[in-house]
Amino acid sequence: MITRAQIHQQNLNKIFYPDSVAIVGANKVVGTVPCDILMNILKADFNGIVFPVSPKEKFIAGVKAYKYVVDIQDEVDLAILVFPSSVCHMALEQCGQKGIKSAIIISAGFKEVGEAGAVLENQLKEIAVRYDMSFIGPNYLGVINTDPRSKINASFARRMPDEGSIAFLSQSGALCTAVLDYAYAKHIGFSKFISFGNKADISEIDLLYYLKDDPKTKVILIYLEEVTDGLALMKAAREIIAESHKPILVLKAGRTSAGASAAASHTGSLAGSDEICDAAFRQAGIIRCDNIEEMFNKAIAFAYQPIPKNNRVVIITNAGGPGVLTTDAVVKQGLQLAKFSDETTAILKKNLPKTANTHNPVDIIGDARADRYNIAMSAAFKDDNVDGVFVILTPQSMTDIDLIAREVAKVSSHYDKPVFTSFMGEADVSVGVDVLQRNKIPQYFLPESMAVAFSTVYNFSQIANHRAFEPIDLERTARERANRILDSAIGTGQKYLTEDEATQILNIYGLPVVESALAQSAGEAASLAVRLGFPSVMKVMSKDVVHKFDIGGVVLNIQSEQEALNAYEKILRDVRQKLPFIKIDGILVRKMIPTGEEVILGAKRDASFGSVVMFVVWAGFLLKYSRMSHSEFPQSTNRRRNP
Amino acid sequence: MEKTEVRERVKLVVAKVLKMDVSEVSDNANFIFDLGADSMQSLELVAGFEEEFGLEMDEDKALRVQTVEDAVQFIAGYLG
Question: Which residues are CB-contacts of A8 (< 8 A; sequence separation ≥ 6)?
């Protein structure tokens, strides 16, 4: 049986590449969503037919309107619903009757407004399932496809963005319009621009899979307020990265508890623990960004430039200070300063002024003009020891900013190596910045941002090429053995595992544990201590005792067989004195290990990501979810120190 | 008042507010989906019904009325 996800993949193409579109609920009141969407489609030079559907208008903007969508004689690929929420289900039902398989529902007034809205939203889902339809929304801005094959702006955004290779998905429609404005000013283009709102039917997961195979998309950006199915998101990210090598950059709101509750009121979502989210993204290869600027700084690095083959970079600058700052950033980001070949050094020495620094970072001196940049860049690009070039400019009186920007674009176009720029300043450099942005050269206000962006691209390429995000599957037999211990504990009504049982489970999963054994007599304890080695430790094992030390149930630093005999008797005596009626299972004997780092393992069920494993380096009192994984797919490596 | 009379007067109000011929207003017509009422006109419809029938209606409940027939039932309830 075909799944909803498969139906969505079939229908999504008609959302982005429809031959005909019906705007259901259109009107002619300029400044309203129904009218502006129609106008946007008409203005964007859409390569298809448009059918306004309006209960009372005969024509809108000179285009014949229909009272009902079922009145349209021709085939309709996509319906855009702009009716108020109270009647959207009626409109969608008619779309189903008409045989329309794809819809976008712009209208608000659904899940985000409470229970009554949720009922209406469920009606839409039922209708979509009944007719094998798919819809994006409701409660959102719309979709934009800049591909000349379609050129559809089915949104109420103010403008159609330029064509580009970045796809942007957003749960917030209003953020989309701000991003469009931001990107327009920087000449950043998009392949697809999608707000997905309440994601009642088509989710961000479906959209991600669609974008995986979209030839126009090189980079995928997502703004998320909630992760409803974290495991599905991780699985999708892994597959997309492995199969298409497309990076996924996510801006996830709700980092703080206040932010999480704001997100909940915004989309009716329930934000999960942010630290789990952080760890999950990292594990899936998703690049998490803290803000829009960081997201686009990294996105343009991926979208505009070739992937570096290695991490050796050259800094070319007309200013010493920024060169030093960038050098620091290069080192901090784990990149290498490239060492020039003798030939390159000779070229630079021959053609640059004597005062110039011909070693990396290359300081071509404050009075450098475009010719000097050309010499340094050309030599650097040609050198096999160089994998990427950072160009820094500060605006002196003689600096020909515009020409230098053009030179960067021209020279770099001849080489399959990335170039990043930092034309520092604002007013004077703006002419050069504009040239760079129009020519798809990543330009950053802060020179350090070049290193951050470069390292993000380089690190991602390394991970994507080596499929480092593949989960490690556990052996079925190990799980069965561990389950036997857990089932037995549950069967006897235990609320927690004893140390012995917990150690056995760790051992089953291959985690290194210190060898130990349970003794039932003083003699056995002493023999075990001799076999395991001194110094040793003894601990009382009882299902009735959690804090063994508090009742004298632990003896440390046992140095001999006699001390072992004594320790056994002492533990029994002290414990019996404090808790005379408990059942003692035995005394655990273990070799005492030297002081080291203490770690904590824990588990939790997260609303978004399912079963997660906590691995923490104990630092006094701070606990962090430093790694997570689904219970079936734990990662065996990596750890993080707490701050 | 007979429901038939209520229905005819409701249709007249609807036609007047939505600027259409009364013959276009069918018994089961949905104010938004079939007749194209916008949010402002929905408020005007409530005001029109109150004036026509000399009633003061609960506005929240009145705005939930979506069709001509629902309006007839709703107003008939007020008229007793």
Answer: A134, A201, A202, A206, A210
CATH of the domain at A84: 3.40.50.720
Q: How many domains does chain B have?
A: 1
Domain boundaries, position B61:
3-79
Residue of A87, A94, A97 to mutate when probing chain B, most B C-beta within 10 A:
A87
**CB pair distance less than 8 Å for B36 and A84:** no
CA distance A60 to A43: 14
Interface TM-score (ipTM) > 0.95: no
Q: Rounded distance, CA A237 to CA A277, Å?
A: 14
List residues of A whose CB lies inside 8 A of any B CB: 27, 29, 54-57, 83-84, 86-87, 90-91
Q: How far apart are CA A373 and CA A419, in angstroms?
A: 13
On average, the pLDDT of chain B sits at 92
The confidence score (pLDDT) of residue A637 equals 37
State the nearest Cα–Cα gap between B1 and chain A, in angstroms. 30
- Other CB atoms within a 10 A radius of the CB of residue A230 amount to 23
Q: Examine the domain organization and report whether A544 and A441 are in the same domain.
A: no
- pLDDT at position A139: 92
The CATH number assigned to the domain holding A550 equals: 3.30.1490.20
Domains identified in chain A, total number: 3
Which among A466, A495, A528 is the end of a domain? Answer: A466
Chain B residue numbers with beta carbons less than 8 Å from the beta carbon of A53 are: none
In a shared domain, residues A417 and A525: no
Record: contact B30-A90, CB cut-off 8 A: yes
Kindly state whether residues A406 and A482 are assigned to the same domain: no
Q: Is B38 a catalytic residue?
A: yes
What CATH number is attached to the domain comprising B48? Answer: 1.10.1200.10
End-of-domain residue from the set A193, A217, A241: A217
Within 8 A of A54 by CB-CB distance, chain B residues are 36
A54/B33 Cβ within 8 A: no
Residues A457 and A527 in one domain: no
A55 to chain B, closest Cα gap in Å: 5
Cis peptide before A138 (omega within 30 of 0): yes
pLDDT tens profile A56-74? 899 999 999 999 999 999 9
Q: Which of B21, B34, B38, B70 is catalytic?
A: B38
CA distance B36 to chain A (A): 5
Q: What is the pLDDT of residues A404-442, one digit of tens each?
A: 999 999 999 999 999 999 999 999 999 999 999 999 999
Radius of gyration, CA atoms only, chain B? 11
Note whether A355 and A501 are same-domain residues: no
User: What domain range is A199 assigned to?
Assistant: 4-217
- pLDDT, residue B75, reads 94
The enclosing H or E element of A177 equals: helix A173-185
Are A90 and B18 in contact (CB < 8 Å)? Answer: no
Query: Which residues of chain A register pLDDT less than 70?
Result: 255-272, 467-474, 618-643
Give the H/E segment covering residue A477.
helix A476-491
A583 shares a domain with A457: no
Task: Say how many CB pairs under 8 Å bridge A and B.
Answer: 27
Q: Are residues A56 and A193 in the same domain?
A: yes
pLDDT in tens, chain B (80 residues): 788 999 999 999 999 999 999 999 999 999 999 999 988 899 999 999 999 999 898 988 888 899 999 999 999 998 87
Yes or no, beta carbons of A87 and B38 under 8 Å apart: no
Contact, A86 vs A108, CB < 8 A?
A: no
Radius of gyration of chain A (CA): 32
